[in-house]
# Entry
Amino acid sequence: MCRMTLMIILGIETSCDETAVSIVEAKGDLKSLSFRVLGSAMHSQVKMHAEYGGVVPNLAKREHQKNLPLVLEQAIKEAGVDLSKINIITVTIGPGLEPALWVGINFAEELGKKLGVPVIPANHMEGHIASVLLNKTGVVSFPVLALLISGGHTELIFLKSWVEKERIGETQDDAVGEAFDKVARMLGLPYPGGPEISRLAEQAREQDIHLEKKFPRPMIHSEDFNFSFSGLKTAVLYYLRDKKEINKMAVAREFEDAVVKTLITKARKAIDEYSPKTLIIGGGVIANKALRENFLKLKENYPDLEILIPEKFLTTDNATMIAASGYIEYLRNQKSDRELKAQGNLDIS
Ligand code: KG4
Ligand code: ZN
# Structure
């Protein structure tokens, strides 16, 4: 099959609590890629897991099994293409919850056999990087520095190309999204807490409300590119424990300011060291308004740096980014050692 022709990719994502299918038209090579979404559908389990304060793996598995066929049907209907037109299926194999990942993998394998098309294993975090390609047609200038901020990961990845990638920093303890979710829980806010904290912090800014105390900006002076968020979380815990009257808005704002300052400082340190041409920020936490605004402002300090942030609906888990990342994996055209097997801790490769 000629690579420059249009390919229709079916992406499947079941790594956590979203069951998602997307049908994407892809074209180009590793130097110039473009994508067009034909149809996508998603079923979120957030409400169900919220009762437990977090994702319950076996419930997630059961829900994915129940919903995946329906979500596929919806996506196909929206795309208006027949299943027989699909050229490649791609499915998340990790990182994520293994029981949940297996549902997608088994489903993809069966469908691949039925349609006689290859099934390409996709890496969820590489999907978050690829999420910026959906609103940008054409060429990404390498090297790229990617900051990934999600519920399970906080990492800095340096990419010389779509094939050569290296992790240069990561969190030593909690992921930044996890810190948002835990602090939200301490404040009595529902799961997932990121959007709730974000909402309260925005209200505090509108009303010019500050906390009388500053929380730490962890590891901003360390020489490496690593992160740590558990100390910040504990600082919030102690503050809430010792204080009689709590202003949730002020706490949310101060916590968010600490996160913004920490992520921006570390990203700048890595930009200064690695001189990337492009900065990509991916993962659910970049849905956050204050983070989006502050990262875009970096342009003032680095006028030549291209800053790519996914559209808001592509920041949290979705199958469109998996289709894009699976297509890149397909184009790599090297004997990948990736197996079609759930890998909870799968690394960038
Ligand atoms: O990428 P994602 O959808 O799933 C994982 O791969 O983990 O990220 C989910 C994380 C959750 O921790 C959620 O609280 C956080 O993203 N999040 C936010 C916002 N929206 C989602 N965090 C801060 N502000 C937001 N607006
Ligand atoms: Zn994710």
The chain has two domains: 4-131+314-332, 139-309. The chain is about 40% helix and 20% strand.
